[in-house]
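Section 5.1 Outputs to date
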Amino acid sequence: MFRFVLRHFNLYVLTLLVLCIFSFWLAYLFPGDPLVNLTGLTLNDPADYQAMAQKYHMDSGILVQFWHYLVLLWDGDWGFSFSSGLPLYQEIFDSLPATVELSTYALLLSLLIGIPLGFLAGLRHHRTTDNALLAASVVGYSTPVFWLALLMILLFSLQLGWFPLSGRISLLFDVPHDTGFILVDIWLSDMPNKGAAMINAVQHMVMPVLSITIVTTAIVLRLTRRAVVEVMPKEYVQAAYARGLSKHQVILRHVVRNAMLPILPLLAMQSTILLTNAMIVEVIYSWPGIGNWLIQAIYQRDYPAIRAGMLAVSTLVVSLTIFIDLLARIIDPTRERGARAKI
């Protein structure tokens, strides 16, 4: 286990190093002065320009520049945004909780729906229920998340008027930014009409969460069904029936436990897909997360924001992948090293 952790730690460090190299390289690939792309500051005064050039060691070799770039990243000095003039470190970590919140609610809802339906389909293998659920999962998995989000806006917002069109909460409510999670911030605040603000935030959240949940539920259902189908013919399940246990007892004592053991790591590996879908949905619903922020930076040609945003998102995805793989090995030490999710 120690060698496994050490190998993953080395992989994590090397991957982050490659991401930092690419981020540093982007400052030279983007149009304009590399120093301006690194800092996000338009330095018209020659003295200010020279001081900033010394800070980034622009008169030194490329390796020295990259080393000091890493030091500044570690210190939280990621430069400033062209469009807003705010520190990029602050903007990114103000936007990131909204993305994490959207992804978390969608994942929890997908697990609550997909796992029971997956067990139902697996236990009724090759029957009408299984075929119907499998067909529904194929449709859900094949549906592009952006098209689904637009369809929900057209139906539930423009036609029926049930939910707000976009945004995270109505402008009538002034919610303090404490944790970045809108429901938690409303709960912790002392604002008047807290209940109305909570309802309004949930209404804004329904369509974005459902847009991600439908696609993710299809994945969860198929993974769970596959695990149950593989467990049912096992010898220990047949031996449990031979001992006189009822079907209910066999399912609870043997099928559920052994089916969930390999499926939990596979479900967790879908977190990167979930995060990607959340970033796409943010743009459509004007959800103030990291995905919407990064797209706006691309539209405005905010090169420092693009560079820092890509580094932050890539680091988050790599960190989740490495952590989940370690957690999967702890949960199931017998899991094959080359195991991958199959749908």
